[in-house]
Fold each of these.
Amino acid sequence: MKNNADKTSELLASLSTIHSKEDFEAYLNTHTQTEFSFSQYYNSILHCKNISLAEAVKNSTLERHYAYQIVNGTKAPQAAGKIHSDIEKGFIRAEIVSFDDLQACGSQNAAKEKGLVRSEGKEYVMQDGDIVLFRFNV
């Protein structure tokens, strides 16, 4: 049986060949994996790093935090639509900070004080590692 690292390497190798939404949809139609979920993967990372889920949540500076997967090349309004269609419809702007900058600063407010949080509009293409606060009005 493959371990989590083998499964991750195999998945990343497969996903590196995907360059469009159509390719991704075709991949999903042919590669459904029911035996290994994202939550199992996340929990295995915490286990490997000897971090309890409670400790991971306690150390978060946010009341709630979620991760949404989007296809490379997705613009900010469409990424917002992955959370809820109303956010896409009423999109005003996205306040973006990179994960590395946020981690280095320790909090959203500290990153904002250092000028690392930037405001992006409807044409912004989301990047890997973006932490985003969507501003919208419906």
Amino acid sequence: MSDSINVLFIDSSQPDTDPAVVVLERNGFSVEHRQVNSYTGFEQALREQQWDLILCERNVPRLDALVAWSRVQQRCPKTPFVVLSELVYGEQLVELLDAGVEHFVDKHRMEALAPKVRSVLGNRFRRGSTRQSG
């Protein structure tokens, strides 16, 4: 039996999201997903659907991870938010941590994605439903 999840990807291109979907499906998730690459698309996705999980690239040209995190905290603060990006370090890491982002997965270590997703979804399900109106 698979765990069905709705995932919003904030990433610059669909081919960048495909490996994450494959990893999640290989690890027992049934993944419904949408990929956005702009603030407008992100806002529309938040209005149109409730998400179980948001996976965000650190530097999408038209939507920075800090901006996305801030908006998620305003609209759907119980929805798990994971930065799925190439190495995050230095000042960028400090900014994300200072803002309250707690979950990171390096795109070069995709084997860490499914355990991280299970962890954040498990934590959220114990506290109550991740789905809420925005």
